Each structure stands twice: as structure tokens, then as C-alpha cells.
Design the sequence.
């Protein structure tokens, strides 16, 4: 049985109040090349595949890494809206998020010094429910401030790469 979001929020507040170290969590994701551009990904007890579309040398058996990045942003937005709506007592009937991103392949292929990452990302949020527009605008402000994946897109994150 799953707990309500308000129960999760309160339980987490109590655990963090008892020991601030309880707020620190880590996530690990393992990746293994299958063939070509196909990669098997394992997250806890979950697995999925990553691939590239044919024009980028793949077999199009799955979404590509940048599509998963957009999916991570969109799904984190939906989840964060749910948590903050519960926390603020803002009623929501539905949350729909569309994320679009523009990429210039010059950077990925090293054709010039263009940045290899997204040049622009657009998030469109469609909220439905009985609350006022003002309540939904306040909810959006809270989500924009607290969404972890949105933070990854907006701010540099210390990242190290190393050969094993």
C-alpha cells in the first residue's frame, strides 16, 4: 500500500528533523553497451534500453539519451507538481507536461566548437482543477524552485568522469 504524498512529506520532515543527514540520498545507474548505439540501463530493479534513431547511426529500438533527459525533466515536473500541490493544499485534477529541446549536432560530432548540449529547452505545463489561476501560478513558482531535474537543466552541477 502506498502512502499519501502528505504522509511522505510529513514522514520525511520528521526524519530530517531528527537527523539532517537523512536528507542526503544517492542514486546509482549502471549502463552496458549491447551493440552499436544500444545501451542497457539498470536502475535498482528496473531496466530499460537506450538507442539512437537511424539517422544518428542507431537502430531506433528505444529513445536516445537526450530524449530520456527531456523525459526525466517532464516526469520530474509532473511529480513535483503532485508533491507541491499536496503540500500547499492546491487541488489538481490532472497535470500534463510537454518538454521540447533543440540540439545542434555540430557540437556532438565535433564539426565546430558549438556546445554539444541543448541550445534551448521549453516546458509547457497544463494544469486542470478547481483552483484559481493565482493558486496555480503560485504552485508553478514552487515547482520551478524545487524540481530537482529542472535544477540540473538550469544550473551547473559538479560532475567528474574517470576511467575505471
Sequence:
Amino acid at each position: 500500500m502506498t502512502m499519501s504524498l502528505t504522509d511522505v512529506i510529513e514522514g520525511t520532515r520528521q526524519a530530517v528533523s531528527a537527523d539532517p543527514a537523512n536528507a542526503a540520498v544517492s542514486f546509482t545507474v549502471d549502463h552496458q553497451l549491447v551493440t552499436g548505439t544500444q545501451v542497457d540501463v539498470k536502475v535498482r530493479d528496473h531496466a530499460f534500453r537506450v538507442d539512437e534513431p537511424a539517422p544518428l547511426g542507431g537502430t531506433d529500438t528505444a529513445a536516445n539519451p537526450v530524449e530520456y533527459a527531456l523525459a526525466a525533466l517532464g516526469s520530474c515536473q509532473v511529480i513535483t507538481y503532485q508533491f507541491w500541490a499536496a503540500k500547499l493544499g492546491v487541488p489538481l485534477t490532472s497535470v500534463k507536461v510537454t518538454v521540447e529541446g533543440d540540439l545542434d549536432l555540430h557540437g556532438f560530432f565535433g564539426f565546430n566548437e558549438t556546445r554539444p548540449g541543448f541550445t534551448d529547452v521549453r516546458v509547457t505545463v497544463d494544469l486542470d482543477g478547481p483552483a484559481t489561476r493565482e493558486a496555480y501560478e503560485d504552485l508553478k513558482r514552487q515547482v520551478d524552485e524545487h524540481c530537482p531535474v529542472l535544477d540540473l537543466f538550469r544550473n551547473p552541477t559538479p560532475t567528474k568522469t574517470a576511467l575505471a
The domain at 64-154 is CATH 3.30.300.20 (GMP Synthetase; Chain A, domain 3). The CA atoms of residues 10 and 17 lie 10 Å apart.
